[in-house]
Every structure is written in structure tokens, then in C-alpha cells.
Design brief:
Number of strands: 0
Distance between the termini: 55 Å
Low-confidence stretches: none
Number of helices: 5
Structural class: mainly alpha
Largest sheet: none
Order of helices and strands: HHHHH
Helix content: over 70%
Shape: elongated
Radius of gyration: 29 Å
Strand content: under 5%
Length: 124
């Protein structure tokens, strides 16, 4: 049981570190809390058994680093949305081009028999 909680603590602390350096750093709080809980249980069980492993303390260190980095990014780094007018103009332009392309298609070249339509309707 102690090994399970130790492994879970290490895995979630690594996830917290990974999330804290990504732009979605606010999500690092969830694996960090899980790492603290798993690490606390593993620490309690190892203390009860009389041997505290360094890996548990390492997971606490990683979790603390992840929480520190996440807190720093939350308070001091401001995310700004730049002007999206250029993207909106390109989207309108692409939409107009697609409409023109659809209008230029010739549907007169296609021949559809009534038997094909009946077989399609029967399949549904």
C-alpha cells in the first residue's frame, strides 16, 4: 500500500510540474493537491513502518516547485489577447471564396437515376 501511494505521489507531482510550465498552468493545482495527499498518506504509512524514503520527500519538493511556479504565473504573468481583426477578415475572405467555389460548381453533369435514390432511401 505504501508503494502504491508513493508511486501515485511521484506521478502526480511530475504531472503538476509538466502542467505548471505549460500555458495551462492553472490546471497544475489539481495534480499538485493529489500529489500532496498521496505523499502525505505514503509518508504516514512509512513513518508507521519506521522507514521514510527519500522519494516521498522528493515528490513533496517537486509539488512545492510546481505550486510555486503556478502561483507566480497566476499573479505576475498577464495573458493578453491581441487584436483579432486580421483573423476575422481572413475568415470572412475564406468564407466568400468557399461560397464562390460552390457557386461555380456544375451539377448538370451529374446524372442520378431514380433507382439509385430509392436504394439510398431504403438503406436509411
Amino acid at each position: 500500500m505504501k508503494k502504491l501511494f508513493t508511486i501515485l505521489a511521484v506521478i502526480t507531482s511530475f504531472l503538476a510540474i509538466i502542467f505548471s510550465v505549460l500555458p495551462i498552468s492553472n490546471l497544475a493545482i489539481f495534480p499538485a493537491i493529489a500529489a500532496l495527499v498521496f505523499g502525505g498518506v505514503a509518508f504516514y504509512l512509512s513513518k508507521k513502518a519506521g522507514e521514510v524514503k527519500k522519494i516521498i520527500q522528493f515528490s513533496f519538493l517537486l509539488t512545492t516547485c510546481a505550486l510555486t511556479l503556478t502561483t507566480y504565473k497566476a499573479f505576475f504573468i498577464k495573458t493578453e489577447v491581441e487584436n483579432t481583426e486580421v483573423l476575422d477578415e481572413k475568415e470572412v475572405q475564406f468564407e466568400e471564396e468557399a461560397i464562390e467555389e460552390l457557386e461555380n460548381l456544375d451539377f448538370e453533369d451529374f446524372e442520378i437515376d431514380e433507382s439509385e435514390l430509392e436504394s439510398i432511401n431504403l438503406d436509411n
